[in-house]
Predict the 3D structure of the following.
Amino acid sequence: MKTIKSYINNNKSRFINELFELLKIPSISADSAYKKDVLLTADFVLDSLKKAGCDKVELCETPGYPIIYGEKIIDKNLPTVLVYGHYDVQPADPIDLWTSPPFEPVIKKTEIHPEGAIFARGACDDKGQMYMHVKALEYMTSTGNLPCNVKFMIEGEEEVGSESLAWFVPRNKEKLANDVILISDTGMIANDIPSITTGLRGLSYVEVEVTGPNRDLHSGLYGGAVANPINILTKMIASLHDENNHITIPGFYDKVEELSKNERAEMAKAPFSLENYKNALKINDVHGEKGYSTNERNSIRPTLDVNGIWGGYTGEGAKTVIASKAFAKISMRLVPNQDWKEITELFKNHFESIAPKSVKVVVKPHHGGQGYVTPIDNIGYKAASKAYETSFGKTPIPQRSGGSIPIVALFEQELKSKTILMGFGLDSDAIHSPNEHFGVWNYLKGIETIPYFYKYFTKLSK
Ligand code: BES
Ligand code: MN
Ligand code: MN
């Protein structure tokens, strides 16, 4: 019997080349200029699933971008693993900061990836990680090592809120019926410290618009006498945190799950170096909510961040002007028990209430989603843990992440199954940033680990 290790060795360069072809298509879901490319990527994924051994593949139309579905059912009495991933990517800008073009993948060595990393938008989030599952399936089907049924559901709108998937899932419950959902769209602590993500934060994303006078004004003739929307907006934003970096929106923390001393002590055992953290980001100090560690601030605590702010004159030179309008995009990361719709409402009410009479404020909710926590006492987690033990030679550490995959909570609600988050990326892989990359070692290690998950999950299901 061919082992997964030898299969990977024999097919390594093909695995990398195929991923390169996928990475070359700029499937930016946020920008309609790339619509053709997003659709081409959907076709690519469909084709790759067919080649990897799915018996049935479908391009499922939705109100937005299509969802690619594939399945291989070997025996109705065996368990079914549903793999989820996304084929869309974040915009590449700022383009100038990339050391090689975002859609021309290349392998470059880095300090953390001495064996080389694939540099391209989507290399880690999520094309590279999604494609590991396609190649793991290829191995299992072509060598007679698929121990159970498998379904794939790969969407093209994750980076813009998964609206079409939220439409698709409740309409296709039977098709998507499964015993466990498997996702590789998160990270791990380090290549020699494997970890399994056990939590995701929720999200509320809003846009605000502050309007002062009905038109842009000469800042000498009117300055000092009318409200400047940019001055007002920045002041309003600044007031959303107090001196301890607590969020000031009334009721914001009411439902936040407080962890016990024990749970926090358990969390603090995960290896972490504040010095390395600061060095990697070239910062002199960290910043955050008083009373919590860095790892707590970015996982078990809710946050509020401005993602973008604009208004007035930002061209070359100087222009003396009071703009009519100022805007900001604001996201709040949420933790278990906080409801994103409720938080959005709290934000809206508060933000409108702190606006002075001299301006008009409009709060426009974008998208959002609930957080998620996976228990570690179920067979899905146990199977994943054993899979890592086999391929890494180490027991993985359970760790809650600060990122969000809002659709995971909906999966649980609609499909009644748990999600296992087997991520193989690293925080330093620069997802959503210029020079996103994914270690070649990580890519191949993922392909190696996944079939063990199927094996142990099937065994533990008996
Ligand atoms: N794959 C990420 C989420 C992620 C990355 C979770 C690393 C944990 C560790 C996903 O593609 C993503 O970027 N999600 C968005 C939310 C979405 C609604 C746009 C996020 O977290 O900002
Ligand atoms: Mn992702
Ligand atoms: Mn992402």
